[in-house]
Amino acid sequence: MGTDAAEAVETLPYPYAFKVHHSMCTELLKLVYKVSKIFPEIEAARPRCASGIQALSLLNETLEKAKHHLRCCCESSKLYLVITGDVIVSRYQRSRNLFEQSLGKIQTMVPVILAAEISQLIDDLRAAMFTLESSEEEAGKAMRELIQQSSKSDLVVNSEIKAIQLAASRLHITSRKAILIERRSIKNQLDKVGGNDHRKRSILNYLLFLLKKHEDLIIEEQGETPKSQHEGFFSLKNPNNTSLHQQNNQVESSIGCGQSETRTELFSRATPPEEFKCPISMRIMYDPVVIASGQTFERMWIQKWFDEGNDTCPKNKVKLAHCALTPNISMKDLISKWCVMYGITVPDPCIQASKLLDISINSIASLGSSMNDLNLPLDISDMSLRSIDASYSSESAQSKSNLMPIQNKDDSYRRHSYINMNQQDLKFLSGLAELPWESQCKMVEDVKSCLQCNDQLFHSLSSENFVEPLLRFLRDAHDQQDRGAQRFGYQLLLSFASKNRSGILYLHEDVFDLLSSFLDSEVIEEVLAIFEVLSGHPYCQSKITASGALVSIRNILDSHSTEFQKQAIKILLNLSSNDDICSQIVSMECVPKLVPLIKNDNLSSYSVALLRNLCDIEEARVSVAETSGCIASIAELLDSGGREEQEHAASILLSLCSQHLHYCQLVMEEGVIPSLVDMSINGTDKGRAIALELLRQLRGMIEYDNEHEGFVSDIDADRDSSHQTPEKKSDADADRVASNRTIKKIFKNLSVFPKRSAIASKKKR
């Protein structure tokens, strides 16, 4: 191997040298340059294991073949190159796939910084597109149709003239000089063709014959034409000291960055903030975590950094006190919202190299059969492909052998399922509907078992090969009332939603409509579990509400199944992060349904958390205050609940007291002062802060009462006059006075509460 970057650059052709297929050749040239540039680093860091050496050998071999393909497009006949355009596309695609395959294996065997560079290069490989230009495709089609015609046909001469004139015009072979260059290229190719390759030799001889026979007809009337379009495509010189890096920059400015048009347009509109990118990989983070230095990284990359024995921050080189990773939830939420806004999917970087190894490597092998379909009399279907097919066949066998996972002997069933279910096999779902029903059910069950063995296979699934076929299967299972099939189908969908976050974007409105229709069926447990997962994703929340599922979920709160009630509350809790959905939840009178659930030890924590979120809007606070027993149930949690429940309960009461004096009185009547005092002393930091603020609010209300004696009593008296006797009014006033006196004594003895005047703010309200 021993190839260094300088040597690699010297052997590469110049961009202006490509005779045809300029965009494809330039695209491959950029990839070859990038691989050549990083190759010495990979070679220096190569692992000493057999698989690492094998991957490095494959990378080197693919690199040499790609260079050979590029040289062919510089030296071969234009006419021959357009005739074999499909062959060249397949060769370039194959080179790209083998680059990705070998680099994917090497990525797991090198230091993390180099692995991040390789990861970025793999992204560039995946974005590379190879397509024929329309003029060259038209010329190639005309010449292939000419070759297909029988030589005995009376119309062959006219066909020859039309075809060669069209091809020559499209390829700018319209001057005597251009024809001379083309004939020399054909002759040079003939000199290199082996004696056994009769098909290729026949094609080249026929092309040479056409140029000699129809040269005068090809030349345009105006005589010598300007330089061909492709010769002026790159206004570059070829000085000996010109580096490929400089040429590559000019190529990129002429043709683009080498990515697909859609991808380029997308990221021109949506440039991610630098804060969203991992400092190691320089890509948008999928699972951001914070380390001891306060810097945020992608979990996978920083974990690899630590696994290599590093104890410093990769960004600022500060020595770390510890190597703990803390999820950066706020950053993850910001990235998620930004991705939804621009329709971008962030892939999981933890995808193993096994996914890369599943790349199809049969494109060249299948090329002969596709060319055979042309039924060419001169049989060009096998030209120049035999040696390539032979070399790639051995690589194919080696690659597929590496896909076999190592399992314990005790796990024979899973091993059998995994071995027989690679990425290619997963495409069966595209034709699932064509199988008999029993076979469909068995296949869905097998896939579920297979995916349980290897989570990384989830990232091979897409809308076309998984979601849409599975959706059809679930509809059919519903129509046939097959409960077992429904259960297996929804369990498979649950696994997909749980383990492939980026794949959730494949779920469209019809999926949520179907799920909503099953909320009153026998598979309600599975459907609720799916909704629980999906409700945590902002992308899905509006789709859940649009499907009408909220009504069914609200009704489940009245069910006799504690487990179903818990799932329903969790779904509403996730949805309550959206203020618009909060309004819908409150309008459906969910608050009264939560009151008895607050008293259930298994449901209280989720119920009070949901109420806490809902109380961010005015309608919910009114509903809580006006629902009989709601404030009392919340107040009880200040004594009986855990620390988190106490915090939520106090927060709800604080949101009420901050809005209305009457709400303060309702809270005071529940005798919450002792519990709040205890919480302000013994609670968590957050709990103490909430309790102190609530106590201050309540004391401000009492001070306000003292300044405006009888004000609250007069309001209460007017409100209750229609249904209270004088004796009852007198008793109520006496109780209120006694309660206020007791509270004043408590506040008087509390030195932890500094005085502050809340009267002004209360007057404003």
UniProtKB/TrEMBL annotation:
Annotated CDD domains: RING-Ubox_PUB
Reactions performed catalytically: S-ubiquitinyl-[E2 ubiquitin-conjugating enzyme]-L-cysteine + [acceptor protein]-L-lysine = [E2 ubiquitin-conjugating enzyme]-L-cysteine + N(6)-ubiquitinyl-[acceptor protein]-L-lysine
Keywords: Repeat, Transferase, Ubl conjugation pathway
Residue ranges annotated for the U-box domain, each copy included: 271-345
UniProt-annotated stretches for the region Disordered: 713-737
Pathway: Protein modification; protein ubiquitination
SUPFAM superfamilies on file: ARM repeat, RING/U-box
Listed EC numbers: 2.3.2.27
Domain of life: Eukaryota
Protein name, as recorded: RING-type E3 ubiquitin transferase
Source organism: Salix suchowensis
Biological classification of the source: Eukaryota, Viridiplantae, Streptophyta, Embryophyta, Tracheophyta
